[in-house]
Amino acid sequence: MARSIALKPDQVPADSKPTLDAFTKNIGFTPNMMATFAQSPIAFNAWATLLGSMSKALDVKTRDSIGLAVSEVNGCNYCLTVHSFTAEHMAQLPAEEIILARKGHATDPKRDAAVRFARKVIETGGKVSDADLKAVRDAGHTDANVTEIVALVAMYSLTNYFNNVFDPEKDFPAVTPAGSI
Predict the structure, then answer these.
(1) Which part of the chain has CATH 1.20.1290.10?
(2) What are the protein's GO molecular function terms (predicted)?
(3) What is the mean pLDDT of the chain?
(4) CA atoms of 81 and 25, how far apart (whole Å)
C-alpha cells in the first residue's frame, strides 16, 4: 500500500505546477511519483532541472542501464518499473539487456564499463578502487563521462530514496522480482 497519496491537480503547489504540467504533457499522463514529489516545489524543481541537464549525458541506453543498476541496488521497485519501461520503449533495449543492466552489466563493452562502474559507486558509497576507475577509463570513458556517471548515480539514488520512503502507487507495468531474474 502506498505511504503517500499523489496530489490531485488542484492540490499541486503553484511553484510546482509548471514543471509538473510540462512532464504531464511530455509523458501523456502524470506519474504518481511526480505528483507526490511536487509537494515540495524546491526539491521537485531542483530534481527536474538535474534530470533535464543529465538527459544530455552519455547516451540513452547507458543512462537507462545505469538507472536500472542503481535502482536494483537501492531496491526501488517503483524506479525499476519506470526504468524498465523507458529502457524498452525509449532506449529500445531488448528484455535480456534490461535484465543484464539490473545485474550491473551490458553486452556493449563501453556501456558495460559504465554500468559496472555505476554499480561500484553505489555499492561503495563512491569509494571505488583505482582499478575500478582504470577499467571505466580504459573502456573509453573520459573523466567528464566518469563525472556524469557519478551524477547519474546520485540523481537516480535521489528518486530511489524518495520512492522507497513514500512508496507511491505504481503506474508503470510491473517487473519481475530481482530474485527470479
Answers:
(1) 60-180
(2) peroxiredoxin activity
(3) 94
(4) 20
Report d(CA 29, CA 36) in Å as an integer: 14
pTM of the model: 0.94
Q: What is the pLDDT of residues 104-136, one digit of tens each?
A: 999 999 999 999 999 999 999 999 999 999 999
pLDDT number for residue 36 = 96
DSSP state of 15: T
Give whole-number Cα distances, 83 to 8, 126, 129, 135, in Å. 24, 22, 28, 25
Considering the four listed CATH numbers 1.10.10.10, 1.20.1290.10, 3.90.1150.10, 3.60.20.10, the one that applies to the domain covering 60-180 is: 1.20.1290.10
Amino acid identity, residue 53?
S
